[in-house]
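Minutes, project check-in
Item: structure for the 454-residue chain
Input as provided by the requester:
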Amino acid sequence: MTKRGKRFRVLLLSPPYPHLGGGELFGLSGRDEWFPLGVFAIANAICLEETADVHIYYKPDYTPATLEAVIRKYAPDIVGITCFTHTRFACFELAAIVKQVNKNIKVLLGGVHATFLDQQIMAHYPCVDMIIRGYAEGAFLDVIKSVLNKAGLGRIAGLTWRDGDNKTRRNSNRFLENDLVRELACDIKSLFIDGLPAWKSMEMILFSMPVETARGCVYTCFFCSRFGTEDRTVVQREPAQALRYVQGLFELFGRRQVYFCDNNFTLDRKRVFEFCDLLRSLPFELEWTCSTRVDLVDKELLCAMKRAGCRKLYYGVDSLCQRVLTSIGRHFAPELAVKNLNLTVACGLQAEANVIIGFPGENAASVMETYSYRKRLHPSVGMVLRPLSIMPGGLLYHHALKNGFQEDYWLKDHGPEFPVYTGAMPEKRIMEYCCFLRNPKNYVAGREKSLQKI
C-alpha cells in the first residue's frame, strides 16, 4: 500500500472473455490460469512511485453486480482496464458500469486492441475517457501526476483523450522507455483485492509465470501487431535484476515454471550466456521456456540454456517455403529452420514451430514445399499450424484495409476467432491446407495433389 494521506485512488481491472460474467477464453474459472501481466506492472510502478493508492481486482467473480460493488467500495478516481481484442466487449461493458456508479470516475483503457483502435473506441464508446497507446507504466504515472496537479493532458506522449469540449485529442507516440528497470515493490501482494487469485501453473506457455526480460523488437514482421515498429528499439533488464524479480514473484506465488516472454529471448547472445550462468548459480533449479527465432540459436547456446534449466523453445517459423519467407521479410532459409529445430531436440530441449498458412503469394506449391521440409523434422518437434489472421496493427492489417477489410468489423461480436486473411486464397482452401499439414497421414496417397483443385 502507498503512504497514508494519499487520497487519489486507482483501480486496475483485466476483464475475462467474452463478456462480463462469461467464461474465460483460456481457463475454466476465468481467473485461475491467466496472469495479469499488464495491470501487475502498472500497479507495481504506481506503488513504487507512491503517487496514489492502487488496487487490482482479479478474482473469478467478474459479474456486473460484483464489479459495481467493488467500484463503490473503493471509490477510485481512475479505473484502468486492459483491453485485448478478445475482451473488448467486456471492457466496454465495464466502462459503462463505472460511469453508472459515478460519471466523474475517469476510465482509462490500455492494451493491444486499445492501442491500435483508439480512435474507433473513442468515437463509439463515450464511457471511455482516455487510452494509453503502447506500454503503459510511464504514461499512466504521467496521467496521475497531471490530474493531481490539475495540469493538462496534452503533453503526455502516447495518450488519446477527450478534452473539455468532448473532442478526441491524440498526442504524439511515446518512445519505448525502459520500465523494466523497476524492482518488485515489497508490498505488491497487498494490492490484490480479496487476496491473490488461486492461480494454477500448467505445462503450457499460457499458464507459466510470464516474465519480461526485454521489450521491443528489431524486426518488422509482416503479420505482427506490435506497437512502435518504426523505431525497432529494444530495452532490457540486466540478468541479475531479472532474477531478483523472478525470486520476488516466487515469494508471492510459489516456485513454478517461468516463461520469459520477450519477443526474441536469444537476440543478445552474450546476454543469454550471462543469464544462464546466473541461473546455474541459484540454490534451486529454475525451469523455464522462451520464444525466439530459428536464426538466433546455435549448438553452444542451446546447450548452455539446457544446463541452465531451459525446457522448451517456441520458434516463430511462419513458413517453410523460401518464396513466402522472402516475401514477408524472414531472412532465413527453410534448411536453417529444419536444422535448428532438429538441433534443439538433439540438445535435449523441446521445440515448437509456429507456422502460418495464407500469406500473400501462398498457393498449393508453397504449401507442398512446407510439407516437404516438415517431413525432415524430428518427430518430437511440435508444429502449431494456423491460418493467417487479421489482427489490429502491423503491416498485414494495413495491407488488409487497402484490400477491402472494413475496420467496423471490430464493432460487432464475431466470437473468439480473428478474421482470416483471404487475400491469397479463399478461407476454405486455407483451412484445408492447415488440416492437411496438421495430419498429413489422414490423407490417402495422392490426396496432396487434389489439394491444388480445392
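Outcome recorded: The chain has two domains: 9-170, 201-451.
No further action items on this chain.
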